[in-house]
Every structure is written in structure tokens, then in C-alpha cells.
């Protein structure tokens, strides 16, 4: 049976998966129910495109002079999304993409589920940086570090070069916020494919199961903990809160997630703070763990430590460009255009915030990139529709995406702006149902005025 694969335009997940292809009863994408959504990022069926109809762009002669029309800093999913959006409107305008790595395009949401699916880093890469560059007809600067941005003179300063630009896009992402009690060289993190490659290699050096401490029981930490235990490793999941996803969901939901993790064999250590990490001469590490309530301490020995305790945005570039910025939330942008406090500089993805709220989900990236591309081209007089009377830029409107936990042991999804902080909106049980296959709990977060600002659904199997 010949099945056309479809790719999620937001995160790159492909239907059907390799395991589906081994099945004898694959449902063609066109026959899927209209309620189908991407299991990684939650976008709807309309955001998928057949892979064999992917837009091809002709190679173009790369501009080699010092002046670049559009410069994009960062070659992750956000940066490449801007390239795609610009090329969809203009095949010729000069684009220079600056990457700190080799700029390979890969499925970032798959990083926290790759081990159990037996995916290697090579499996996750869709195109190498060189392949993607040739396809898009852009100039790519790989393994390059941007030292500073001179926003007054519209220049980007690198180690051995200085580029001027007409418009600049910041797609610099965010970096792991490693607790101050832990030295960075003692831990792994999976925030990009290089981090995944590092821990993949470390785990593959031995055929024996390892004891891995995952610090941080947010979404990524919870997902990677299950992913690692499914391939035979011992996992201790530590968090300063009593339950997983405790900053997002109320305890009634967190307790169900906790129970599902424990049932998988994960050693969940809530209410725990790591105060010290010492490398052992025999290999591995000894951690000093403190109970946040009683201050009692105990030692935990592990082979590896993986940190997933949130993100921060590095300050050097935003501050050098004199942009409105906060290390925790990122670069402040105008919602309608995604321009920063400097109108010639835009920001997208993990590094930016709207009204003080960071935007660190994959699903909105395509719409954000489209807004930036439209606005930049219009500003440069290159938008193909500018000649039409009444052309007006379509403002970006930020809509919180569906949040979906990728754990197999329990189904968790949320919409709106869920938060465990009930100061302004209280969590209420909307329905609590026993089904033939398990249990479904639906929660709503409701303001004093009766407005539902978030909904969470937790489904567990018997």
C-alpha cells in the first residue's frame, strides 16, 4: 500500500511513523478524522503538508559582499522557519543565516522521545545545513559566534568579520538554567541535537543499564525520564515541587502523573533540592539531596545527571543591541509585528516574550515566522502584494497552543494559559469519568468572573 507521508509544518513530525509503516492497517492522512492533531506539538490537521509537495526553491547566487539585506542569528527551528517564510514570498532577496553549529535541520520535539523510539541523531536530521542552504538559496555561516550587535549602525560583529544588515532577526533560542549548586561540566542537557548526541554517545559506550538522575520534572524532564526507563536504564526524577508539572497544573493532576511515572519504575523524588555534586574516582557522581521541608539530607549515587530545570536567554547579544530584555522571559517584542524595541530587529521563538510572557512552544513558530517575513519584506519594499491597493500587514495574534505531554504511560493535554498559581483563577473539576479503558479527569481554571482561562485533560489507563 503506497501511503504519502505528511509532515507537520510546525515541528517536523511525520505521519505515518516508521512503526506505523510496519502495520498492515495504515490510515491514509486524508482519511484521518478532522480532529487529528500532531502528537508532538498539538497543531491541527490543516498544518500538515505532503512531503512530496514540499516547496523547492532554486539555488541563487550567494551575495558575498559585506552588506546583507536580511541577517538571521540562530539556525534552530525558529531561524529556519523564518528562512522558509521569506522564501515563500521572495526567492531572490539576500538572506544570511548565522549558526553556532553546522545548522542541520532536525525534529527538536523528538529529542525527549528518541531513545525509546530507537532514533539516533542521524535519524532526526531532515537536512544537513549544506543541503538546506542549497535548497533555500541563502548564505550560511556555520560554527560562527556573534560577539555583539551594533544596532545604531546596523552591524553584526563576529570573530573575524563584520556584517551590515537592513533587517535582523534574533532566533538565538534559550539555554538551560543549570542550578548554581551544580557545575555545568558534570551534567547533560537535551536542549539541542548536540546535547542529545553527547548523552547518546555516553550511554552507548556501555551495554550495561545506567542510573540516571533527571533534575527537573517539568514537561521535558518528565518525558525524558520515561524515555530513558523504557530502554532499560534506572531513572531518579528529582524536583523541588511535590509533583511533576507542578508550576503548570494543580496537585490533583500532578499526583496522577506522579503515579503513572512510579508505575513505570521511575524513582520520583519530589520536594528535593540538589545541594552538591561530586565526581567519584570510580566514575559517576555522588549527589547531596536536601528535603525542602525538613532540611534532611541524604546521598544519591548515579552514573549520569541530566538537567531540565528551565531556560534562560543569554544576555550578551540583546544587551549589546540595547534591546528591552529580561533573562528569564527573553527579548520583548510587539505582538503585531514581532519587532523588538529597535524596529530593524525582530525576535522569534524561545528567545522572545510578548507582554512579559515567554513563547517557548513549537506550534506558533510558523505563524510567527510568517509575520516576520511579511513585515520585513513590506518594510524593504519587496512584498509581492504591496502594489495592491489597500494592502495592510496582517498583525500576529498570539494564541496559546495546545500543550501535550509525550509520555506513553499517561495522556496529558492542556489549552489556554494553565498555571498552578490560583491567585486569579481557580482550578475546578469539570468531569471525572471512569471509562472501559481507564480514567479521564477534565479540569478547568476559572476566574472569579467565570471566565475559563485554561483546560487540562488527564487520561490514565487501567
Automatic annotation (TrEMBL):
Q: Looking at the keywords, is Metal-binding present?
A: yes
- Alphabetized InterPro entries for the sequence: FAD-bd_OxRdtase, FAD/NAD-bd_sf, FAD/NAD-binding_dom, Rubredoxin-like_dom, Rubredoxin_dom
What GO annotations for molecular function exist for this entry? iron ion binding; oxidoreductase activity
Keywords (alphabetical) are:
Electron transport, FAD, Flavoprotein, Iron, Metal-binding, Oxidoreductase, Transport
EC id: 1.18.1.-
Identify the residues that the record assigns to the Rubredoxin-like domain, covering every copy: 3-51
Offer one Pfam family short name for this entry: Pyr_redox_2
Give the top-rank taxon of the lineage listed in the UniProt record for this protein. Answer: Bacteria
Task: Give cofactor(s), names only.
Answer: FAD
- Family named by the database record: Belongs to the FAD-dependent oxidoreductase family.
User: What name does this protein carry?
Assistant: Nitric oxide reductase FlRd-NAD(+) reductase
Annotated gene: norW
Amino acid at each position: 500500500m503506497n501511503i504519502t507521508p505528511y509532515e507537520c509544518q510546525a515541528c517536523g513530525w511525520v505521519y505515518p511513523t516508521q512503526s506505523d509503516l510496519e502495520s498492515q492497517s495504515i490510515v491514509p492522512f486524508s482519511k484521518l478524522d478532522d480532529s487529528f492533531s500532531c502528537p508532538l506539538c498539538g497543531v491541527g490537521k490543516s498544518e500538515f503538508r505532503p512531503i512530496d509537495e514540499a516547496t523547492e526553491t532554486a539555488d541563487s547566487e550567494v551575495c558575498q559582499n559585506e552588506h546583507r539585506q536580511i541577517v538571521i542569528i540562530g539556525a534552530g527551528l525558529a531561524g529556519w522557519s523564518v528562512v522558509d517564510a521569506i522564501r515563500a514570498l521572495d526567492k531572490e532577496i539576500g538572506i544570511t543565516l548565522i549558526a553556532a553549529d553546522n545548522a542541520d535541520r532536525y525534529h527538536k520535539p523528538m529529542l525527549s522521545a528518541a531513545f525509546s523510539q530507537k532514533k539516533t541523531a542521524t535519524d532526526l536530521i531532515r537536512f544537513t545545513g549544506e543541503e538546506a542552504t542549497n535548497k533555500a538559496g541563502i548564505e550560511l555561516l556555520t560554527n560562527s559566534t556573534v560577539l555583539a550587535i551594533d544596532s545604531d549602525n546596523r552591524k553584526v560583529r563576529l570573530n573575524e568579520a563584520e556584517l551590515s544588515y537592513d533587517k535582523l532577526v534574533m532566533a538565538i533560542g534559550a539555554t538551560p538554567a543549570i542550578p548554581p549548586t551544580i557545575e555545568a561540566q558534570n551534567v547533560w542537557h537535551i536542549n539541542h541535537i548536540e546535547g542529545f548526541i553527547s548523552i547518546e554517545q555516553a550511554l552507548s559506550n556501555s551495554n550495561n543499564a545506567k542510573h540516571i538522575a533527571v533534575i527537573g520534572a517539568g514537561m521535558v524532564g518528565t518525558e525524558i525520564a520515561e524515555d530513558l526507563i523504557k530502554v532499560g536504564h534506572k531513572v531518579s526524577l528529582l524536583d523541588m515541587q511535590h509533583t511533576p508539572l507542578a508550576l503548570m497544573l494543580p496537585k490533583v493532576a500532578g499526583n496522577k502523573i506522579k503515579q503513572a511515572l512510579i508505575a513505570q519504575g521511575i524513582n520520583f523524588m519530589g520536594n528535593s533540592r540538589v545541594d552538591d555534586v561530586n565526581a567519584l574516582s570510580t566514575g559517576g557522581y555522588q549527589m547531596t539531596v536536601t528535603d525542602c521541608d525538613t532540611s534532611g539530607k541524604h546521598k544519591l549515587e548515579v552514573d549520569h545527571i541530566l538537567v531540565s530545570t528551565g531556560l534562560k536567554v543569554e544576555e550578551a547579544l540583546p544587551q549589546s543591541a540595547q534591546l528591552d530584555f529580561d533573562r528569564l522571559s527573553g527579548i520583548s517584542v510587539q505582538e503585531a509585528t514581532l519587532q523588538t524595541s529597535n524596529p530593524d530587529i525582530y525576535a522569534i521563538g524561545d528567545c522572545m516574550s510578548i507582554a512579559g510572557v515567554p513563547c517557548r512552544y513549537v506550534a506558533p513558530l510558523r505563524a510567527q515566522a510568517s509575520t516576520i517575513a511579511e513585515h520585513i519584506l513590506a518594510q524593504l519594499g519587496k512584498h509581492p502584494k504591496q502594489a495592491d491597493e489597500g494592502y495592510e500587514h496582517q498583525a500576529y495574534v498570539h494564541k496559546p497552543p495546545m500543550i501535550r505531554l509525550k509520555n506513553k504511560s499517561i495522556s496529558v493535554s492542556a489549552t489556554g494559559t494553565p498555571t498552578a498559581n490560583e491567585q486569579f483563577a481557580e482550578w475546578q473539576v469539570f468531569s471525572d469519568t471512569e471509562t472501559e479503558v481507564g480514567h479521564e479527569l477534565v479540569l478547568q481554571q476559572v476566574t472569579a468572573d467565570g471566565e475559563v482561562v485554561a483546560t487540562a485533560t488527564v487520561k490514565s489507563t487501567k
